[in-house]
């Protein structure tokens, strides 16, 4: 649905008003919503934290700070938009960035563990390249845990 004000951008915010006892819902993009309802006479500017820009989801407007404060994403697109912040938390909580459901304990899924280890290794390199050292540290800890598991499994064979 398009913004009812600019008629260009995707609407992500709603504004409800009552006129003559009837409820009217208007749909706005994030820019128009901020311009019209949040900061009157002030041009919206992206928030900054300690000299750097904070990432924000273009679909729902959830920022890194919102995610850190609430621990919740605003929409499915947040996982991509806020990946450097969200992915390490997801990995820390569920052990992988992709939820695959439960498996039998003795299913012998060594290949899956090796695949996860390689994926984490690539993630660590990406985070270091992007200078996101906090996320790299979290992924490195998970990588170390997987390596210990794999090497322990090899010595048992």
Would you give an account of this structure?
The chain is mainly alpha-helical and 157 residues long. Helices cover 48% and strands 11% of the residues. The protein has helices at residues 30-38, 64-70, 78-81, 83-94, 110-129, 133-156, and strands at 13-19, 22-28, 48-49, 52-53. Strands 1-2 form a two-stranded antiparallel sheet. It has a two-stranded antiparallel sheet with strand order 3-4. A hairpin with a 2-residue loop joins strand 1 and strand 2 (22-28). Helix 4 (83-94) runs parallel beside helix 6 (133-156) and helix 5 runs antiparallel to helix 6. The protein starts with 12 loop residues before the first strand and ends with a helix.
Q: Output the helix-strand order.
A: EEHEEHHHHH
Strand % is: 5-15%
Helix percent reads: 40-55%
Number of strands: 4
Q: What's the overall average pLDDT, rounded?
A: 78
Total discrete domains: 2
Distance between the termini: 58 Å
- Please give the count of helices: 6
Structural class category: mainly alpha
What's the Cα radius of gyration? 22 Å
Envelope shape: elongated
Largest sheet: 2 strands, antiparallel
Strand order of the largest sheet: 1-2
How is the secondary structure organized here?
Elements: E1 13-19, E2 22-28, H1 30-38, E3 48-49, E4 52-53, H2 64-70, H3 78-81, H4 83-94, H5 110-129, H6 133-156
Antiparallel strand pairs: 1-2, 3-4
Helix pairs in contact: 4-6, 5-6
Supply database-style keywords.
157 residues; 2 domains; two-stranded antiparallel sheet
Short description:
With 157 residues, this protein is mainly alpha-helical.
């Amino acid at each position: 649905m398009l913004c009812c004000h600019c008629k260009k951008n995707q609407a992500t915010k709603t504004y409800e008003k009552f006129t003559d006892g009837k409820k009217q819902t208007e749909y706005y993009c994030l820019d128009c919503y901020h311009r019209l309802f949040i900061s009157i006479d002030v041009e919206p500017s992206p928030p900054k934290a300690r000299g750097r820009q904070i990432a924000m989801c273009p679909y729902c407007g959830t920022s890194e700070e919102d995610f850190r404060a609430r621990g919740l994403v605003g929409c499915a697109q947040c996982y991509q938009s806020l990946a450097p912040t969200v992915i390490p938390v997801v990995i820390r909580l569920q052990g992988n960035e992709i939820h695959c459901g439960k498996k039998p304990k003795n299913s012998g899924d060594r290949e899956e563990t090796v695949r996860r280890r390689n994926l984490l290794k690539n993630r660590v390199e990406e985070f270091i390249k992007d200078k996101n050292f906090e996320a790299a540290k979290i992924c490195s800890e998970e990588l170390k845990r997987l390596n210990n598991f794999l090497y322990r499994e090899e010595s048992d064979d």
